[in-house]
TrEMBL record:
Lineage: Bacteria, Pseudomonadati, Pseudomonadota, Betaproteobacteria, Burkholderiales
Protein's UniProt name: Protein MgtC
The UniProt record lists the keyword Electron transport: no
Pfam families: MgtC (PF02308), MgtC_SapB_C (PF21770)
Provenance organism: Ramlibacter aquaticus
Location, primary (coarse class): membrane
């Protein structure tokens, strides 16, 4: 009977209002995600918002504002684990970052509602929704623009195929030429290539390069004795 004695209609009504606000705002965020057929849609974002609101409201009732603050910190870290599950890496491509960030935003909205910060919850939901809608055409327009090599930031790797007996000298010359061109080498690896050759792989620090300058370095390296081939490529920085 102790549980019945602890029932306070006014407190219960207040909790109902907080969770309802979290439900509605999380549902609005999730609806946009569901329409776009994202992994975390209507139900997921709504549950994240409602769950965050319940935890914060419960902590506020049991431990006051200090308790609620502590629970908010745990909610943030807990949603981080949930968001990590939505992120997938396939080769050089990473997907799910926006989904994870949206879940984080839904948790923030729910936490605000659970703390009775209704205006703040509405403002937060508006900005999360705006980020997923208003910024979309901006991102699409930027992505359709051709990327200028000189302005892009990537990881560049220089490859040199040379006679195995000459690989030490070629490696030293390659590093010297790259540093002279103001492209410091982050790491150098070498391994056998065929019966008598070796491949030298020099990774540069992530930067923007002038393709012409790097081509000139390649030309100088290819002129070295024992070098049969030299080339470079770029990959997006993770």
């Amino acid at each position: 009977m102790e549980s019945l004695q602890m029932v306070n209609p006014h407190v219960l009504l207040d909790t109902l209002v907080r969770i309802t606000i979290a439900f509605l705002l999380g549902g609005v965020i999730g609806l946009e995600r569901q329409i776009r057929q994202r992994t975390a849609g209507l139900r997921t974002n709504t549950l994240v918002a409602v769950g965050s609101a319940v935890f914060v409201d419960m902590a506020n009732r049991l431990g006051g504002h200090d308790g609620a603050v502590h629970v908010v910190a745990y909610v943030v870290s807990g949603i981080g684990f949930l968001g990590a599950g939505a992120i997938m890496k396939e080769g050089a491509n990473i997907t799910g970052l926006n989904t994870a960030a949206t879940l984080w935003g839904s948790a923030a909205v729910g936490a605000c509602a659970g703390a009775a910060l209704m205006d703040e919850a509405a403002v937060a939901a508006s900005f999360v929704l705006a980020s997923n809608t208003l910024l979309r055409p901006v991102v699409n327009r930027i992505n359709r623009q051709p990327v200028k090599e000189a302005l892009s930031e990537a990881t560049y790797t220089v490859y040199v195929i040379c006679n195995r007996a000459r690989q030490a000298d070629v490696r030293e010359k390659l590093v010297a030429l790259l540093e002279a061109a103001s492209y410091p080498v982050r790491d150098v690896d070498q391994h056998p290539f065929g019966q008598s050759d070796a491949e030298i792989e020099a990774k540069l620090y992530a930067t923007a390069v002038n393709p012409g300058e790097l081509d000139r370095v390649i030309t100088l390296v290819e002129a070295e004795a024992g070098v049969s081939q030299a080339f470079w490529n770029a990959s997006a920085e993770e």
